[in-house]
Amino acid sequence: MKKVFKIFTVDNFEKEEIYLSKMAKKGWQFKKYQGLKYYFEKEKPQDIYYRIDYHGSDDGDKNEYLQLFRDSGWEPIFFLPILDGEWVYFKKNGDEPGSTEIFTDASSKIQLFRKLKKRWLRFAMFFVCAFIPLLVISVILRNPVLFFLLVVILGANIFLYGKMALNLTKKIQELQ
């Protein structure tokens, strides 16, 4: 089994799909993602399409959702729980008939981008609110090192989540 450390942010999951497909062409089949690492098994090089979708807990019956994809030739291969839902990784052999996309219309892709943006911004707001008491405590304790560290962590997270929100907004506008 091969482990590869690689990070893709939520707003760039399409790049992750391309990366996984390129690895399959090199003979490395994606098996799971854990702890910022992708795990691959060596097999023969194949033309495989990978697609990723987010299924929230409030998005309806999971079995019906998965069956819809199976009926279109997509095999669910990995589930990554996150933010009251999960990323679902699908694969489809390149020689199978049918679309190589799981979103065949702009409106369903817009809906996904809006859902991702809403959930991640909600998480970012929770994160910022959780950091405010820590900042206050660092001031009360008169600990400038702790204060500086917390400000750097908070700033990096605001930048990251802001970038994701802007990119998702741009993608939504391009599809409209």
Describe this structure in words.
This protein has about 180 residues and is α+β, with helices and mostly antiparallel strands. Helix content is about 50%, strand content about 25%. The protein has helices at about 15-25, 60-70, 105-140, 145-175; strands at about 1-5, 30-35, 35-40, 50-55, 75-80, 85-95. The strands form 2 sheets. Strands 1-3-2 form a 3-stranded antiparallel sheet. The chain has a 3-stranded antiparallel sheet with strand order 4-6-5. Helix 3 (about 105-140) packs antiparallel against helix 4. The longest helix has about 35 residues, at about 105-140. It is globular and about 65 Å long. The N and C termini lie far apart (about 40 Å). The model has no long low-confidence stretch (mean pLDDT about 90).
